[in-house]
């Protein structure tokens, strides 16, 4: 067989998924042509790799965790004529066998770039162009937004969607609706959402939550564009709680003009997404600081936290016009496929629509679009017949995706 004929041939698709809770590795192999008596699937001597021989070509992946089975064919004879084969293997270390490798599964979730791992007196840079966004002189301390504050904030967003569309705005003129607004306002105030209890940005302090960093406007060099009419840029609408008037803001990089975040009128500070920032490559910075979290890492952390807090596996990623419903199937797996190996991930289902009744994370439309791209990419890693799921006709088809999580 010549090299070119090998190159033209499609390779088998190999996929392995480790479920730490069950201590099992699921393996799925799709062949580009029917199996023959010479098709073989085996595990390497160290238990670390899956190797498939088919039509004189060997394809292999590193398993997400080592298998108990070592240096052997996968159980069962492979008869000719198959396009798909699947196995379930025991992991070398699992919760069931009490092995060490299972320990990471027990470590509680830590958000990437929490205040604990960040050092002050360091420049905060735009990840794209490395322009200084907050200088070391003005950054004296990092603080986590208190988790109860985070929870309250989430609850606030959830019960009180910070977007007023034209329709509602018009209807708010009728006295009934105005009373409703006032009623909900005082209800919020009595539950501690009044302006006096809110956390405000403070000079010298970088506040961090699961996905963002909040800086005082005088510490942050971002260009902030205020637009008093939400219709100018409906992508970035925040509600001013005092006036109930929508104010659109964009916080953009002073160097490359990329949108890094928004001006948060509730907290009176610049709120920047962690995945838009980086720290200088300096020995003074901790290792965690030099491993900047991706959008995927931050989203997985936020989804996980929402599920932990509410018990609901469905979360709506709500933009102004864009919406995605995410449904967490398994918050913690690891997988390997032909293109990526040993990746920690969350397995979820998603649909291109919002849902009134579910938990919401309010995001700019541009971020919801980025997330859609991420989920489409996360769908491509799955075996061909595990990309879609439908439970009933009414609910529609769900797309399956793997969302990469930070390594713990
Ligand atoms: Zn409300
Ligand atoms: Zn920039």
From TrEMBL:
GO cellular component: cytosol; nucleus; ubiquitin ligase complex
Organism in which the protein naturally occurs: Coniella lustricola
Gene Ontology MF terms in the entry: cyclin binding; ubiquitin conjugating enzyme binding; ubiquitin protein ligase activity
A GO BP entry: protein autoubiquitination
Any matching Pfam family: HECT_2
Name by which UniProt lists this protein: Ubiquitin-conjugating enzyme E2-binding protein
């Amino acid at each position: 067989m010549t090299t070119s004929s090998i190159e033209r041939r499609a390779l088998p698709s190999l996929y392995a998924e480790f479920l730490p809770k069950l201590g099992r590795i699921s393996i799925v192999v799709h062949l580009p042509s029917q199996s023959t008596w010479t098709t073989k699937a085996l595990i390497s001597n160290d238990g670390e790799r899956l190797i498939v021989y088919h039509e004189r070509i060997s394809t292999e992946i590193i398993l997400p965790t080592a298998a108990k089975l070592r240096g052997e064919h996968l159980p069962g004879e492979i008869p000719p004529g198959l396009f798909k084969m699947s196995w379930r293997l025991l992991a070398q270390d699992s919760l069931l066998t009490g092995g060490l490798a299972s320990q990471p599964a027990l470590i509680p979730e830590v958000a990437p770039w929490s205040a604990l791992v960040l050092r002050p007196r360091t420049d905060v840079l735009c990840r794209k162009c490395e322009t200084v966004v907050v200088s070391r002189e003005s950054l004296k301390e990092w603080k986590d937004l208190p988790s109860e504050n985070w929870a309250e904030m989430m609850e606030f967003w959830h019960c009180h969607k910070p977007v007023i569309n034209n329709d509602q705005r018009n209807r708010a003129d009728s006295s009934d609706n105005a009373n409703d607004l006032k009623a909900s306002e005082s209800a919020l105030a009595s539950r501690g959402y009044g302006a006096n209890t809110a956390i405000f940005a403070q000079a010298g302090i970088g506040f961090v939550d699961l996905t963002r960093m909040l800086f005082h406007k005088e510490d942050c060099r971002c260009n902030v564009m205020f637009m008093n009419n939400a219709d100018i840029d409906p992508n970035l609408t925040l509600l001013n709680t005092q006036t109930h008037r929508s104010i659109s803001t964009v916080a953009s990089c002073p160097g490359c003009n990329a949108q890094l975040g928004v001006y948060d009128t509730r907290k009176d500070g610049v709120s920047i997404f962690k995945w838009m920032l980086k720290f200088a490559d300096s020995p003074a910075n901790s290792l965690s600081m030099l491993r900047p979290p991706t959008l995927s890492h931050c989203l997985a952390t936020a989804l996980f936290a929402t599920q932990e807090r509410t018990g609901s596996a469905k979360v709506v990623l709500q933009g102004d016009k864009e919406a995605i419903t995410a449904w967490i199937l398994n918050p913690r797996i690891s997988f390997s496929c032909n293109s990526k190996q040993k990746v920690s991930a969350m397995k979820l289902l998603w649909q291109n629509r919002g849902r009134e009744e579910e938990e919401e994370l309010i995001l700019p439309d541009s971020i919801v679009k980025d997330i859609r791209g991420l989920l489409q990419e996360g769908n491509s890693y799955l075996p061909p017949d595990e990309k879609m799921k439908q439970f009933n006709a009414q609910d529609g088809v769900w797309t399956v995706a793997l969302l990469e999580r930070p390594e713990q």
